[in-house]
Amino acid sequence: MAGAVTTVVIGAGHAGLAVSRCLTELCIDHVVLERGEVANSWANERWDSLRLLTPNWQSRLPGFAYDGANPDGFMTMPEVVGFIRRYGNLTGAPVRTGTTVTSVRQEGDGYRVVTDRGTWRCRTVVLASGAFNVPVVPALSEHLPADVRSFTAMDYRNPDQLADGGVLVVGASATGVQLADEIHRSGRPVTLAVGEHVRMPRVYRGRDIQWWMDAAGILDQRYDEVDDLNRARRVPSPQLVGTPERIDLNLNTLTDRGVRLVGRVAGVRDGKLMFSGSLCNNCALADLKMNRLLDAIDEWAAASGRAEDAEAPERFEPTRVEKAPLLNLDLGRGEIRSVVWATGFRPDYGWLHVPVLDRKGRLRHEGGVVDAPGMYAMGLTFMRRRKSSFIHGAEDDARELCTHLKQYLDEHHQQPSLHVAG
Questions:
Q1: How far is residue 397's CA from residue 403's CA, in Å, rounded to a whole number?
Q2: What's the longest Cα–Cα distance across the chain?
Q3: CA-wise closest residue to 10 among 130, 176, 91, 108
Q4: Does any domain span residue 417?
Q5: Do residues 379 and 173 touch, judged by C-beta distance below 8 A?
Q6: 121 and 146: one domain?
Q7: Which residues constitute the domain of residue 80?
Q8: Contact 396, 405 (CB under 8 A)
């Protein structure tokens, strides 16, 4: 079943549903196409124990917000799925589930969207298929011995999947430190390869760090207010974990629990895994940036009159690193049986046949306005604001982009074409 509509939204996660709500408010007819079920990636592409990094009070979408009994808690993945699906039901979003988009091409003054269940013609398209579709795994992974099994953060569900014996976790952002901790608690020796990372306390001056960043406007910083936007969009997710106890999970925590730290994976040579000597520098830089963030929060608290209601400022122990970290690991000795690549993700635009990708396969856009007439993106990292990829960042972005979309329609199209496409 297919046809013609003014706007096609691709993806029924929180970003796509936020766009749908805003389009409805603007009386723009549309359809939301989803390859699986609503909130598909949250339901099927996360590990079992994962919780949101943001507290429940921060979970909000256009016209909808968390209303449960635990605002300071952190949702499990089933709870996130339930939250998003409830939103879709309440807003009456016109979602077509089980519909995989196979091609998007320009056609006339609009677009032709081909799916495995028919073809749609539309004036405008919103790409809300997510920024975390394909795991990024270094090419050197192909040179690991056959008896060392690799997993991505998308493959991994729980430690029972892993062989007995040592595990190398590559990457020390939020995903890497959480997986390293969980796997180590399962009784397996863990080595964590650390590259660039963002250290951040869970609680600062008696409040969740996200409260400070939200209240101080740090998360609202816009894409056109930073000097190096490309770098800002590549910043790793902070070393945070959402637990009922609101614990810190940083490299010191992991070292105290017995996790071994090494530098960034640099290559494989003669059966040996090589690590860079940058561990000390990366840790020192992360500590420096954390303290700059805390300085900015302290300055805002004093200027806004919030300091009196908060606990006293504090600074945290620097990251402890061995004087001579391990620089290579002989994989032939059987010390490492599994490798988990927590090295990030990228969007999948294999179906997008419009010349809007750069030479690295990244979408060319200006704050979500894609470099093609009538095409938009949602949910990308630092798309319009620092909070763009978070659930609570979708509302402001969706409202602004849908306003731009409506202006585009008003300027270029009087009425949508309503004939059924072939």
A1: 10
A2: 70
A3: 130
A4: no
A5: no
A6: no
A7: 3-133+347-412
A8: no
pLDDT score of 416: 45
Q: 262-301 as b/e, with b when 16 or more CB fall inside 10 Å?
A: bbbbbebeeeebbbbebbeebbebbbeebeebbeebbebb
Compute the 3-state secondary structure of the chain and give helix, strand, coil in percent, each to the nearest 5. Answer: 30, 25, 45
Q: Residues 147, 133: contact at Cβ < 8 Å?
A: no
Task: Decide which of 341, 369, 386 is a domain's last residue.
Answer: 341
Residue 145 sits in the same domain as residue 99: no
DSSP 51: B
How many domains does the chain contain in total?
Answer: 2
Positions of E strands within 18-152: 30-33, 60-61, 64-65, 95-96, 101-107, 110-115, 118-127, 134-135, 149-152
For residues 169 and 171, give the distance between their C-alpha atoms in angstroms, rounded to a whole number: 6
CB 112 within 8 A of CB 104: yes
Between CA 2 and CA 160 the distance in angstroms is 43
Q: Which two tokens stand for residue 200?
A: 């951040």
**How would you classify residue 382: left for phi > 0, otherwise alpha for psi between -120 and 50, otherwise beta?**
left
Looking at residue 133, its pLDDT comes to: 83
pLDDT recorded at residue 414: 58
What does the block give as tokens for 156?
A: 């991994």
Minimal CA–CA distance to 190: which of 328, 343, 336?
Answer: 336
328, two tokens: 């290579």
C-alpha to C-alpha distance for 277 and 88, rounded to whole angstroms: 49
Where do the H-state alpha helices sit in 328-393?
A: none
Each residue of 180-205: pLDDT tens digit? 999 999 999 999 999 999 999 999 99
Residue-wise pLDDT tens digits, 137-190: 999 999 899 899 999 999 999 999 999 999 999 999 999 999 999 999 999 999
Q: Is 5 left (phi over 0), alpha (psi -120 to 50) or beta?
A: beta
- Domain annotation covers residue 96: yes
**pTM beyond cutoff 0.85:** yes
